[in-house]
Design brief:
Number of strands: 4
Helix content: 25-40%
Number of domains: 1
Structural class: alpha+beta
Largest sheet: 4 strands, antiparallel
Shape: globular
Order of helices and strands: HHEEEE
Radius of gyration: 17 Å
Distance between the termini: 47 Å
Number of helices: 2
Length: 91
């Protein structure tokens, strides 16, 4: 019985832990119901000439790995509600 209780407590602590963020950018993005679809951001950037490699959520922001229209590799952050670029804090 103690083993089951310990396992349940351990599992609950992992479930309550926040997602890992790099700390390069954070967004006060509110509930996900208000977020714009990731596909809209991808379309916007593709229309600018970017080649999207990957989009993920980090620090409440959309984190984009892409190649710009100038051929530069970038890691850029965008606010999920406004899709505006978010400044980063490089370490």
């Amino acid at each position: 019985m103690r083993v089951l209780l310990a396992a349940a407590v351990l599992a609950a602590s992992f479930a309550a832990a926040p997602a890992h963020a790099t700390g390069l950018a954070t967004c006060d993005s509110g509930s996900r119901e208000k977020w714009q679809p990731q596909e809209k951001l991808e379309k916007m950037l593709t229309e600018r000439g970017w080649q999207i490699r990957r989009v993920k959520i980090d620090g409440g922001c959309y984190e984009v790995y892409a190649i710009t229209e100038k051929g530069e590799r970038v890691e850029a952050y965008f606010h999920p509600v406004t899709l505006a670029p978010v400044p980063t804090q490089r370490r």
